């Protein structure tokens, strides 16, 4: 139960803030947001407020913000359609019935002659006595079709009606909010536990480790590795991490004397990734302060953005194989393990995951935010948008390929964590 709760809390928060970014900037641009959803699949909770339906869905594997005009959700009335309409006191249509029987004396039935529910907002049609009428359609009119109710979206409320800049920000805001969330989580971490000074001081040495064999001792102050100056523990850590099975020259200060040690990191492998370890531990003193925490939040955001981007580059170039990828099962397992180490560690894990989610969504792949932004870039160069049918087909193919990748990654996770394959 602890693992389930931790996973829902962490992953749900990341998805919520991602979709919140889309939602806020869509609203700022005047775009009608039809649904704000956390999760996919069948709806388990729904609440309508204004023109937006807020839902929680069964599968907690993502979320979406459905904007008017994005999914070909506009209503089209062709000549000959038989419809039912409800008028207000100003004889504006406020409700429109399609493809269903209606037993309401207030409903006027028409056979459509002409209609425009996007720009001019009118319907012309013949009543049951053959008289032709033209009615204005309210900007907030609802359409009921096959039992489903939908608010019409005038063209100026649709996604495609907005400027390229407004559409770009509505899409980019999702990943942006993931980075903002990570920044504030790192600040909270710093306020709770202090900002580590990151002095490169050895706190302890593991018995029988490469470090002990090289003569490294607790209390040693690291000044350089292979001739490169070391000022922070992370610099030392990355040098060891990136050089498994390679002899490194480490310069230390011990009791005001300079000492040189030759150490060869042991190579370890996890999820298809190889890294070095020498068996030393780090315990840095901390400093407190609001400004120091803010600076720390920015530094950590930049550090992890670079680290995750570098690992992604290695995956693209083939330096890492598919086993290095983890899907929902891998994230679930890792979240449970980290939750057992306490709230602080879970908070840090959530910040790193948020950055990872933001970066992955910015990849220029169909169906991801980055894929949408790529089409906007093409539009900016061409001076006109790509045909929506063609773009939709590209995104559909992208969704299929991503689902296939998700299945493969999930299967690898299941084998790794439950069958030790």
TrEMBL record:
| Cofactor(s) this protein requires | Zn(2+)
Q: How does it sit in the membrane?
A: Multi-pass membrane protein
Q: Which residues form the PDZ domain?
A: 201-231
Q: Which InterPro entries match?
A: PDZ, PDZ_6, PDZ_sf, Pept_M50_Zn, Peptidase_M50
Q: Which residues form a coiled coil?
A: none
Keyword ATP-binding tagged? no
The subcellular location is:
Membrane
Which key words are in the record? Hydrolase, Membrane, Metal-binding, Metalloprotease, Protease, Transmembrane, Transmembrane helix, Zinc
Alphabetized GO MF terms: metallopeptidase activity
**Signal peptide range in chain numbering:** none
EC number assigned by the record: 3.4.24.-
- Transmembrane ranges, per UniProt, are 169-192, 392-411
Which EC class is the enzyme in? Answer: hydrolase
Pfam families found in the cross-reference section: PDZ_6, Peptidase_M50
In which family does this protein belong, per the annotation?
A: Belongs to the peptidase M50B family.
Protein's name in the database: Zinc metalloprotease
Question: Which species is the source of this protein?
Answer: Savagea faecisuis
């Amino acid at each position: 139960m602890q693992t389930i709760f931790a996973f829902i809390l962490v992953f749900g928060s990341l998805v919520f803030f991602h979709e919140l970014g889309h939602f806020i900037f869509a609203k700022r641009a005047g775009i009608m947001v039809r649904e704000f959803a956390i999760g996919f699949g069948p709806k388990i909770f729904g609440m309508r407020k204004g023109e937006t339906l807020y839902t929680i869905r069964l599968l907690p594997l993502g979320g979406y913000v459905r904007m008017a005009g994005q999914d070909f959700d506009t209503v089209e009335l062709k000549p000959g359609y038989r419809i039912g309409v409800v008028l207000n006191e100003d004889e504006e249509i406020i409700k429109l019935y399609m493809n269903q029987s209606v037993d309401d004396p207030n409903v006027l039935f028409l056979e459509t002659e002409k209609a425009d529910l996007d720009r001019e907002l009118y319907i012309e049609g013949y009543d049951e006595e053959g008289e032709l009428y033209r009615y204005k359609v309210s900007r907030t009119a609802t359409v009921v079709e096959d039992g489903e109710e939908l608010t019409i979206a005038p063209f100026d409320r649709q996604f495609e009606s907005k400027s390229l800049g407004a559409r770009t920000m509505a899409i980019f805001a999702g990943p942006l909010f993931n980075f903002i969330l990570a920044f504030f989580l790192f600040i909270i971490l710093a306020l709770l536990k202090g900002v580590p000074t990151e002095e490169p001081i050895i706190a302890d040495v593991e018995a029988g480790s490469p470090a002990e064999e090289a003569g490294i001792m607790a209390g040693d102050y690291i000044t350089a590795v292979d001739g490169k100056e070391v000022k922070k523990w992370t610099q030392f850590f990355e040098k060891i991490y990136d050089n498994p099975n390679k002899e490194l020259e480490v310069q230390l200060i011990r009791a005001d004397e300079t000492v040189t040690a030759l150490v060869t990191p042991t190579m370890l492998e996890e999820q298809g990734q190889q890294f070095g370890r020498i068996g030393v531990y780090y315990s840095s003193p901390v400093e407190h302060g609001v400004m120091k925490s803010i600076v720390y939040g920015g530094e950590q955001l930049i550090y992890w953005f670079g680290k995750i981007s570098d690992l992604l580059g290695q995956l693209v170039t083939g330096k890492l194989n598919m086993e290095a990828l983890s899907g929902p099962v891998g994230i679930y397992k890792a979240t449970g393990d980290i939750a057992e180490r306490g709230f602080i560690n879970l908070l840090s894990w959530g910040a790193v995951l948020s950055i990872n989610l933001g970066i992955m969504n910015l990849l220029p792949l169909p169906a991801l935010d980055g894929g949408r932004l790529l089409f906007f870039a093409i539009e900016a160069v061409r001076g006109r948008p790509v045909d929506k049918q063609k773009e939709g087909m590209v995104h559909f193919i992208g969704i299929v390929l991503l689902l296939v990748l998700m299945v493969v990654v999930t299967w690898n996770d299941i084998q790794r964590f439950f069958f030790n394959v």
